[in-house]
Write a structure and sequence with these properties.
single chain; 227 residues; alpha+beta; FAS1 domain; two-stranded antiparallel sheet; 9 strands; disordered N terminus; FAS1_domain; cell adhesion molecule binding; FAS1_dom_sf; Adhesion/Biosynth-related
């Protein structure tokens, strides 16, 4: 009971910090303000991701998932900030699993630090056909440092936060709108149409970015679970 109370308190603190820094409104959506209570244990969240783990590498052909064939078309104004070449470029990221690919992208260095602290690198890299809503460095910068440091120091809370950003299916832009389950055993609601999607109050900066095992949508706000 103490752990659950601490987790909820930290999540609430983080959400208040975002609001104080002028984060996006998210009325009617379930991510950046949260939509469900933190009732599932860490083992439940991780068992969801473990069931998808695979030691086989992904094919180099066009990725397929529950949403069908992906396209190469990327969307969002932030795509211009992605490096033109090297491992952090679109072509470079397509060759690596998602956690590794994110580690090569300078826009996602804070997210990568959080993933490492939570011990989720292997979970993400070994999962097949997932969608990741990846908060940019600027998204984390909206959170007061003291609040962010509290979450980064609490592995359980951090894991709930990060797995809320992962959908266990690969979503092309045509399939993005809707309510989708996450690896945190809750859901995230996406509204809008290409290219103007709203992910639970967050805007897509650069979307439909392909990695070897995931489709990534870089977003401008950290999504807030309530589990």
């Amino acid at each position: 009971m103490k752990r659950i109370t601490t987790t909820v308190t930290l999540a609430a603190t983080l959400a208040l910090g975002l609001a104080a820094c002028g984060g996006n409104d998210s009325s009617g959506s379930s991510g950046s303000t949260g939509s469900s209570a933190m009732t599932d244990s860490m083992s439940s969240s991780m068992s969801s991701s473990d069931s998808m783990a695979s030691s086989d590498s992904m094919s180099s052909s066009s990725p397929m998932g529950s949403s069908g064939a992906m396209t190469d078309a990327r969307l969002g104004p932030g795509c211009a900030s992605v490096p033109a070449d090297g491992k952090g470029s679109f072509a470079g990221m397509a060759k690596d699993p998602v956690a590794t690919a994110a580690g090569n992208n300078p826009l996602l260095s804070t997210l990568v630090t959080a993933v490492k602290k939570a011990g989720l690198v292997d979970t993400l890299n070994n999962s097949k056909n997932i969608t990741v809503f990846a908060p940019s460095n600027a998204a984390f910068d909206k959170i007061p440092k003291a609040d962010l440091d509290k979450v980064l120091a609490d592995k359980t809370t951090l894991t709930h936060l990060l797995t809320h950003h992962v959908v266990p299916s690969r979503l092309a832009p045509a399939a993005l709108a809707g309510t989708h389950p996450t690896l945190n055993s809750d859901s995230v609601k996406v509204t809008g149409t290409t290219p103007d999607f709203d992910v639970a109050g967050a805007k897509v900066l650069c979307g439909n970015v392909q990695t070897a095992n995931a489709t990534v949508y870089i977003v401008d706000t950290v999504l807030m679970p309530m589990k």
